[in-house]
Amino acid sequence: MGFLSDTFSTALDLIASFDPDVVNAVSTSLGVALWSILFATLAGVPAGVVVGVTEFPGKRAVITLLNTLMALPTVVVGLAVYGIISRQGPLGELGLLFTPKAMVIGQTILAIPIVANYTLGTVKGADPRIVPTALTLGAGPLQSIRQLVQELRFGIMAAVIAGFGRVVAEVGVAMMLGGNIRGYTRTMTTAIAMETGKGEFALGLALGLILMGVALLVNLFLNILQQR
Amino acid sequence: MKSLRGAFLAIIALVVLCSAASAEERLKMSTTTSTQDSGLLRVLLPPFEKENNVKVDVIAVGTGQALKIGEAGDVDVVFVHARKLEDKFVANGFGVNRRDVMYNDFVIIGPKSDPAGIARAKTAAEALRMIAAKGATFISRGDKSGTHVKEKELWQAAGIQPKGSWYIEAGQGMGPVITMATERQAYTLADRGTYNAYKGTKTDLVINFQGEKGLFNAYGVIAVNPKKFPHVKYDLAMKFIDFVTGPAGQKIIAGYKAHGEPVFFIYKK
Asked: How many Å apart are CA A200 and CA A191, to the nearest integer?
């Protein structure tokens, strides 16, 4: 028990003292995850709404594809994006590999299917009369979609939160595309993986505790929004 | 709609807050895990970064992968330890200006009880033969790192193709492998630098075999060839090479100690 309790108290000390390595990893994690979820929301919510309200041939196939993409392994995304943005790849000239931007690209790809799918789910679960009613009341198609999004705002928030949870907790993309560079692309998850391997359990545990704290805060935020 | 918009604005505000821009130049370096895990880079890099107002981005992987990243032109400089691979890297036109930086040696570490009795071995190859004969657990880096390359050379010298349940290929860096060997009470080949940094607090393994000429471990630094990759920061890379091989850098390397013992040695000029 001594080992565990010692580790735990060291972890708390590291958090309380704003250890620069801890602070850096936390801000990199949050910064990259927030950018990713921002882009994923801009792409995923419209995609989910469009697939949800329109009828088109092959809709089932698209939904199956979205479902499959939800389970996309992070390392596969990492591998694919690595190949594209490495200096030898088609976008190599941009020099993106081993930068936070590279991680944002990878994590955005991870989050889009999740955001789109959750949005699609709420759209399907909504009162099917919303759009027709809005239309008969004289609203244009865009206005009626707006009405729908407003009705579904909690579902869409949940979609965004789920996507955020996925990206902030993943390690594959961050490790492969960011390179785990200290003070630059080292995130909470890559630091935990590295510190555990190095036998620095306290630092890893401190980051793990913060990661769980972040998840709690995000959910509290959602909760407060829903009660308004 | 209000709450959704509010949340959206809050997210954007957070994003802006979290992405504090830095205008510093960045030098990308791929290196072996031992330079980072031994703690050397933490004292070696800051003076260089301060003097040149630059950030050195360290990508710590095995030597094999570090060179591969250099071959793709994804870094500006490589800092590794596998002379044959380094020479090939330069001969194939990927790198220029290879310089010796420092050296230490490899050691075979294992449980204090030394179940295979390798302390009695006369050569490293003989020590490995004894481990294999006994079937004592041995953890291999298995990641094409400089240490892994050396280990494979030693098995070859021993005339053994290591395989079986006692031979574990970890596929991880030096630090994680020492941690794994400690948990499994197994033997492994380690560079003295990383081992010294782990000794005592993080591992109870001891050096069972050391001091053979074949266990020499030399580190070299190479600039990625700007003729092959025009985008690399060659001038900055050369400044870094001059720093680590120059008096200031060499002094830091020679003076760096872990648990009171030197970790790397510099060449006498």
From this structure: 10
Contact residues on chain B for A21, CB-CB shorter than 8 A:
none
* Of the partner residues A34, A149, A185, the one whose CB lies closest to the CB of residue B18: A34
A187 vs B102: CA distance, rounded Å: 31
Residue B175 tokens read as 């630090």
H or E element in which residue A63 lies = helix A59-70
What CATH class has B106-215? alpha beta
Could you tell me which CATH number the domain at B2-104+218-262 has?
Answer: 3.40.190.10
- Say what the pTM is: 0.83
Which residue of chain B comes nearest to A97, CA vs CA? B74
Q: Cβ A153–B19 below 8 Å, yes or no?
A: no
Nearest to A30 by CA among B196, B20, B170: B20
CB-based contact, B118 to chain A, within 8 Å: no
Whole-angstrom distance, CA of residue B259 vs CA of residue B77: 30
Query: What confidence category does residue A2 fall into, taking pLDDT thresholds of 50, 70 and 90?
Result: confident
0.85 surpassed by complex ipTM: no
Phi first, then psi: what are they for B138, rounded to 5°? Answer: -130, 130
Chain A residues whose CB is inside 8 A of the B37 CB are: 198
Contact A197 B231 (CB under 8 A): no
Inter-chain contacts counted by CB atoms under 8 A, chains A and B = 84
- Sign of the four-CA dihedral A207, A29, B23, B38: positive
Give the pLDDT confidence of B89-101 residue by residue, as tens digits: 999 999 999 999 9
Q: Does B194 touch chain A (CB under 8 A)?
A: no
CA distance B74 to B85: 18
User: In the predicted model, is pLDDT for residue B9 greater than 90?
Assistant: no
The correct answer on CATH 1.10.3210.10 for the domain covering A23-197 is no
Residue holding tokens 């890559």?
A190
Q: What pLDDT sits at residue B21? A: 47
